[in-house]
Design a protein that fits this description.
The complex is a heterodimer of chains A (90) and B (475). Chain A has 90 residues and is mostly helical. Helices cover 61% and strands 0% of the residues of chain A. Classes of the chains: A mainly alpha (90), B alpha/beta (475). Chain A binds chain B through residues 25-28, 30-32, 35, 38-39, 42, 46, 48-56, 71, 75, 78-79, 82-85, 88, 90, and chain B through 27, 30-31, 35, 38, 239-242, 246, 249-250, 253-254, 256-258, 260-261, 265, 267, 269-270, 273, 277.
């Protein structure tokens, strides 16, 4: 979240490579961009929900980060981390 | 019988090249088209099973297996041996034991050890059952007691594997997997094969998760183990701050990315993931309702002897009934606690108290709901115990042991088979594990010789090259 230019494509590329060691395809990017946009919008209307969502787990997010933006990225990350490719090598 | 090709992972060179071309082609095509093409999540095809129509008319639709893990002593439960009692303390006749497999008593002097609890006759059928099972005694007229079971493995883990898969070598599909593969499931919101475990009353060896493995069958037919405490399924509840809709967004995205990737990779494991994520999503809704016992009246809770879904055998039995009502095909409730090498008198009595009431309650409850006619209840373990003493306990024994069945197509109120007067060898109407498997499949409408799956160039089946249907226990 704190590295690079902060635009969607750069962040997604970084997250995807960290998880599955390859860049996302165009279709994969489109799918995740749609999810990101939808959840950004959804948490913008419900910032309290975003904070609760972010409280899951042991990591405490930095206070500098916008909880709404971070929550949307959490959704994107959850999708990436649930890919079968995370545990299988192709 | 036909097998869908997508469950085959046998690629010839020609198939590989063909698939690769189709894969690249379809990805290229997909990228030319509107990505909204993928907006509709790939629905997991409903699995209706490969045995269609059934080979023979079914006597039952589902199985609940009350699996008494550890090796319950037949001599303290269902197989009374006055002769053994008479011989108590005297040497076991050498003719029985010479050259026979022995677990822990190897090289020791073998002495007869009489039944440690009195037996009595119960019901109109007059079945002989030990005093440690007062509730099960009450359903004597529903039960078919089999006194002539035989297995081939004398240690717990391989014996479990043998009982579940028909082979001592891990890697074969377990019975629940065969059944969901063969028959599909009548429930779309829960797995077709569910496993629960409880413990108490004796040393409770762990049960390896591969006991409910689908082996070489596709992963979607694997048994799903419910946790005994807390959420029955890990992480089935949503993260705080999110709605069902948010969760659906995530699952649908995962599904679409899997579908995209599977276009390229064509891996049955991804197909398994897709179907399992769909199932997991449905379980977000179905599981909390399933384990909420508040809809159960007080007298039902008391009949089973449970206060709630707390991981006890009693709670698991009630959960098993609720799963059966929802159409789950194969339900196993393991109770770990029957391995009484020492102190068998008290040990059996204590373990029996964990399972006796709920086992009987399950049968009665199914009966009163009209479900016993199409639900087969099986009660038994991986082997029995020696007629010879191991201190004041008994060692593992595989040449003759007992179990019982009730419901779904089983002849009620009979005792089938016999062991010799020492309770050592099954001598009359012997029921080998393969025969038990063949019979259960038959009750479900499956010819055990015809439910096969080709793997590594050979057709495999649950009974391998063995098994005969035990007509004598069928209604």
């Amino acid at each position: 979240m704190t590295e690079g230019s902060g635009d969607f494509a750069t962040r997604l590329d970084r997250a995807f490579r960290e998880a599955v060691s390859r860049a996302p395809t165009r279709d994969e990017s489109l799918e995740l961009a749609a999810l990101h946009a939808k959840h950004l919008e959804r948490f913008r209307k419900d910032p309290e929900g975003a904070k609760e969502y972010l409280a899951v787990g042991l990591t405490h997010p930095s206070a500098d980060l916008d909880p709404v933006e971070l929550a949307a990225w959490m959704s994107v990350s959850r999708v990436i981390l649930n890919l079968y490719e995370m545990i299988a090598h192709y | 019988m036909s097998y869908p090709d997508d469950f085959r992972l046998r690629l010839t060179r020609r198939q590989l090249l063909g698939r690769a071309a189709a894969g690249i082609g379809s990805v290229a095509l997909a990228s030319l088209l509107d990505p909204k093409l993928f907006a509709a999540a790939p629905g997991p095809e409903r699995w209706d099973g490969v045995v269609r129509p059934l080979h023979t008319p079914a006597k039952c639709k589902r199985v609940i297996w009350l699996y008494m893990a550890g090796g319950p002593s037949h001599l303290e439960t269902f197989d009374n041996k006055p002769k053994l009692a008479e011989m108590h303390g005297q040497p076991m006749p050498d003719a029985f034991t010479r050259g026979q497999p022995i677990a822990q008593l190897q090289g020791q002097q073998l002495k007869c050890f009489g039944p440690q609890h009195p037996f009595a006759r119960y019901g109109r059928s007059g079945q002989e059952i030990s005093d440690v099972l007062p509730h099960i005694s009450g359903i004597a007229d529903e039960m078919c007691i089999v006194r002539s079971l035989v297995t081939e493995q004398i240690n717990h883990d391989p014996a479990h594997t043998f009982m579940n898969t028909g082979s001592m070598v891990p890697g074969r599909p377990s019975m629940g997997s065969w059944l969901t593969y063969g028959l599909g499931s009548d429930c779309e919101n829960l797995p077709g094969f569910v496993v629960m475990t409880s413990a108490g009353g004796g040393q409770g060896q762990p049960i390896a998760a591969r006991q409910w493995s689908s082996g070489f069958l596709p992963g979607r037919f694997q048994g799903v183990a419910f946790q005994s405490s807390g959420d029955p399924v890990h992480y089935v509840s949503r993260p705080k701050g999110t709605t069902a809709g948010d969760q659906e967004d995530i699952v649908r995205s995962v599904q679409r990315l899997h579908a995209l990737r599977n276009e390229v990779i064509d891996d049955p494991e991804i197909a398994t993931r897709i179907s399992q994520y769909e199932m997991a999503f449905r379980m977000h809704a179905s599981v909390p309702e399933l384990v909420d016992f508040s809809s159960e009246p007080k007298h039902i809770m008391e009949m089973y002897g449970t206060k709630g879904a707390d991981g006890t055998f009693a709670a698991n039995c009630l959960l098993a009934r609720r799963l059966a009502e929802r159409g789950v095909r194969f339900i196993q409730c393991y109770h770990r606690g029957w391995d009484h090498h020492g102190g068998i008198k008290d040990g059996v009595a204590v373990t029996a108290r964990y399972v006796d009431q709920a086992s009987a309650a399950l049968v009665r409850d199914l009966r009163q709901r009209g479900m016993l006619d199409d639900t087969l209840v099986v009660w038994g373990g991986e082997f029995g115990r020696t007629p010879m003493a191991q201190g004041n306990g008994r060692d593992h024994h595989i040449k003759g042991f007992s179990g019982w069945m009730a419901g779904g197509g089983i002849k009620p109120g009979i005792t089938y088979g016999e062991t010799d007067e020492f309770g050592y060898n099954a001598v009359k109407d012997v029921v080998h594990v393969h025969d038990l498997h063949a019979t259960i499949l038959k009750l479900l409408g499956i010819d055990h010789e015809r439910l096969t799956y080709k793997f590594q160039g050979r057709n495999f089946r649950l009974t391998d090259v063995h098994g005969k249907v035990v007509r004598g226990i069928m209604a």
